[in-house]
Amino acid sequence: MSYDALSTRTAVVTGAASGMGEATARLLAAHGARVALLARRAERLDELAAKINAEGGRALAVTADVTDSGSVAAAAARVHEVYGPVDLVVNSAGVMLPNPIADGREDEWARMIDTNLSGALRVIRAFVPDLVAAAADGRSADLVNVSSIGAHVSFPNYAVYGATKAALTHLSATLRTELGGQDVRVTNIEPGLTSTELADHIDNAELSGQLDGMVSAIGPLAADDVADLIAYTTSRPRHVNLRQVVVLPTRQA
After folding, report:
1. Model confidence over 184-227: pLDDT tens digits?
2. Which residue, 13, 160, 169, 248, has fewest beta-carbon neighbours within 10 Å?
3. Which is the catalytic residue, given 3, 83, 158, 161?
């Protein structure tokens, strides 16, 4: 599809070094948006920015760790220095570390909470003033949070991951009550089984094998499928808010 409305937008995409974040950044840029790429892996970001710019797009690589408030603040300052205020924010940074709750993996719990929930909050704090100002100026303003079907469909051994995504989904709903009246759209997207690097972080061989089996049996979404949905959502007329979108592979119940 053509998303011409994106050509005037300035976007921030977290988790842009891979997966859904990378795919979203590339698609937004392909349709004319200026895109700030935020993630920890500087080399990957530089490569992506160079590719986007070589293809005629506009991209800025900004190394940032969403688990660190100072890093997010510095990233926001850099984005504002180069691009000025933004009007589209995509919170795509995330980590999935399943294990039985009885294993007591507090290190994994802390990492998921700090990335999936607190990290999103840090980014929101940094850029919501921009979104409010853009909307007050009569322009489209979007906050997109990438949650998961795990927010409300239970999977054994994914309790903490699911809890962080449920919190993000609820945060999106609550923020909509705060920001909707100011014409800022808040969209919560819950993908089902999707082929990304998230699976590579799993350190439990049994659970990794189970996930591989699901991929073989169901056939996952591609990161590009989710990116296309984000582009569609954020290119609607400014009075239209697709507030909650669940997207699954056809074979996933």
Report:
1. 999 999 999 998 766 677 777 888 878 778 788 899 999 999 99
2. 248
3. 161
Rg of the chain's alpha carbons, rounded to an integer? 17
Q: Which residues of 129-146 are buried (b: 16+ CB within 10 A; e: fewer)?
A: ebbbbbbeeeebbbbbbb
pTM above 0.70, yes or no: yes
DSSP 152: T
pLDDT tens digits, one per residue of 48-90? 999 999 999 999 999 999 999 999 999 999 999 999 999 999 9
φ, ψ of residue 71 in degrees (nearest 5): -65, -40
Residue 153 phi/psi, 5-degree rounding, is: -115, 120
* The pair of three-digit structure tokens given for residue 220, joined into one six-digit string: 């996952």
Distance CA 170, CA 12 (A): 22
Name every residue whose Cβ is closer than 8 Å to that of residue 36 and which is 6 or more positions away in sequence.
10, 11, 12, 13, 59, 60, 62, 75, 79, 82, 83, 86
E strand residue ranges, 5-141 = 10-14, 34-39, 58-63, 88-91
CA–CA separation, 152 and 165 (whole Å): 9
Chain-centre distance for alpha carbon 110: 19
Q: Tell whether the torsion through CA atoms of 96, 100, 103 and 109 is positive or negative.
A: positive
Strands (E), 174-225: 185-191, 194-195, 221-222
Give the other-Cβ count within 10 Å of 221's Cβ: 21
Active site residue 161: yes
Separation of alpha carbons 36 and 45, rounded Å: 10
What are the residues whose beta carbons fall under 8 Å from the beta carbon of 107, sequence distance 6 or more?
Answer: none
Cα angle 58-59-60, degrees, rounded to a multiple of 5: 135
- Residues paired with 144 in a beta bridge: 90, 187
